[in-house]
Amino acid sequence: MTSDILEQSSFRDPSGFLFWRDGTLYRQINQLYQNNYQLLFDSGLYNELVDRELLVPHDEVEIEPPEPNAAYRIISTEHTSTRTRMIFGMISFSLLFFFSSIVLKSIS
Fold it and tell me: Are the C-beta atoms of residues 90 and 75 closer than 8 Å to each other?
């Protein structure tokens, strides 16, 4: 049985949240954010930001979500030996999702 620890810094984000499992930081992306998440890739924005090193790249992983009824995807940043880099990267990723959703809403 796994024990998830929700990251307190992301509790107000309706599009998902950060959580720790077995020493690794993950982000659950909720179904609510599915269209915006897909648009991030379909528009080319994800690759553009990663190429410019403005966004930490991530991988979609196949693990049991902490909240399966709300989950769309689980992602994790590249594995590093420094916990601080992972925290910073995932928080940056969360902020980017938040601000990109505002921009995407304003142009749609």
Answer: no
pTM: 0.69
According to the model, what pLDDT value does residue 46 have? 93
Q: Interior CA angle at 19 toward 81 and 43, to 5°?
A: 85
* Contact (Cβ atoms closer than 8 angstroms) between residue 74 and residue 65: yes
Question: Which residue type is seen at 31?
Answer: Q
Rounded mean pLDDT, 14-19: 91
Angle at 68 between CA 84 and CA 43, to 5 degrees: 65
Q: What are phi and psi of 53, to 5 degrees?
A: 60, 35
Q: How many domains does the chain have?
A: 1
The domain in which residue 103 lies consists of: 4-107
pLDDT band for 80, please (50, 70, 90 cuts): very low
